[in-house]
């Protein structure tokens, strides 16, 4: 018996070692990027790979952050756009989710079915008509063209509706008898109870929008309006084969997100696992 | 009676902000995009540039070899990346769940690629794949491969290169969904099979895999839908080349609509993409139902 548990312990420890190795293997592209960003072009492709460069050359980061267009511009734009998209999604999805789950009004089922039916339509279908729409409104090359459509999400509405449905109906009946209005019922009674769903939605919408590439690519033209992914590709195109510089830009684009995901990993994992849906 | 009216009004008011966004950015564009199939639109002439084109765009679609080649690449892309990611994700999830310490830390390491910006990791992989000096080929040469592939600069390997990177990002996603699915399997089942003397492999094949079918279905559907829309990695890594060897539909739609300004034709191709995703999802849905009937 004792022998068996010792055997199990040894097996678990060796399996842990194997999995640490797998984990590091998964991170190798990131580690290579980080190491390359401190090199100069002549050191870059040396083999065997020098994971820790002889000299930590920070000139690449200087160029990324203090160059003609600093990455801080892209960060400012990404933060601003994502903030309004996430905030808007939280508000519109929770309000509509509450109504779809708890209120009776004419046409409710039809409208909701229509919502669900559009979920299977790929984003590419919307690119051309949205471009034409924003072009005719004079909104092409403005942040508003990215923010506005990002403030609504069918999937988010669906998630919130599912969550509101789990709240007991008696709660609302009792409030109704006491003469509580619909808005107070939503704001003071229901919303505080849906915090877990709101956190999930926050995580999901943040993940979808922070890395968003296609919409800004199609709708933005001026460099000082670009978001991080778009700024990165522009920077990459301009610097051709100066790979260490490009790696410094990639590190600059990835590092904050990696940090956020690592710190709040439990929330991200739960958010993705609970809905299983990819943006 | 008045209560009912009040509830109706409240209901509409609550969904109003959402409904406006839905109408403006989903419903209207959808209808508009569909109408575009039957038009020819000269972008430079503005709103007066519309003209009726009948089925012209659809005929053009049927005769456009690049469309069908791109669609084929999409199919290859999905049929390779999704099953491999599902298999590896399941394997990692099962072992990680029971037989490993430092579970959380390792889980985070494996799913970081999935969370990262596709654009940024594509920029990195483009350099890793550098055919003459990049680390991927340096390692392959060191391992005794005399003529390693040209990866992104070779028509034979460009798509494979993108697929490999995609698998690397999908694994973490599949693993997380499987780990959540495994939590839902009752421990009693395993204990019962252990008493019956079943080996670990047997209980994996006869308990874990069948019990995880709903998870497999959900993960497969979401990954297939998103893999059919692959765009950023292709655009950044190869831009569809060399010689269209890695062209996919989403990229072709972008090229037609926004680089060549063939807005109507771009919209037409986007509906082909929709049709394909729709059919594939429907087929999956049906096979899922026939699976369930067996139990």
TrEMBL record, chain B:
<protein>
    <submittedName>
        <fullName>Sugar ABC transporter permease</fullName>
    </submittedName>
</protein>
<keyword id="KW-0812">Transmembrane</keyword>
<feature type="transmembrane region" description="Helical">
    <location>
        <begin position="75"/>
        <end position="96"/>
    </location>
</feature>
<keyword id="KW-1003">Cell membrane</keyword>
<feature type="transmembrane region" description="Helical">
    <location>
        <begin position="108"/>
        <end position="128"/>
    </location>
</feature>
<keyword id="KW-0813">Transport</keyword>
<dbReference type="InterPro" id="IPR000515">
    <property type="entry name" value="MetI-like"/>
</dbReference>
<keyword id="KW-0472">Membrane</keyword>
<keyword id="KW-1133">Transmembrane helix</keyword>
<feature type="domain" description="ABC transmembrane type-1">
    <location>
        <begin position="71"/>
        <end position="284"/>
    </location>
</feature>
<dbReference type="InterPro" id="IPR035906">
    <property type="entry name" value="MetI-like_sf"/>
</dbReference>
<feature type="transmembrane region" description="Helical">
    <location>
        <begin position="217"/>
        <end position="237"/>
    </location>
</feature>
<feature type="transmembrane region" description="Helical">
    <location>
        <begin position="265"/>
        <end position="285"/>
    </location>
</feature>
<dbReference type="Pfam" id="PF00528">
    <property type="entry name" value="BPD_transp_1"/>
</dbReference>
<comment type="similarity">
    <text>Belongs to the binding-protein-dependent transport system permease family.</text>
</comment>
<feature type="transmembrane region" description="Helical">
    <location>
        <begin position="12"/>
        <end position="38"/>
    </location>
</feature>
<dbReference type="InterPro" id="IPR051393">
    <property type="entry name" value="ABC_transporter_permease"/>
</dbReference>
<feature type="transmembrane region" description="Helical">
    <location>
        <begin position="157"/>
        <end position="180"/>
    </location>
</feature>
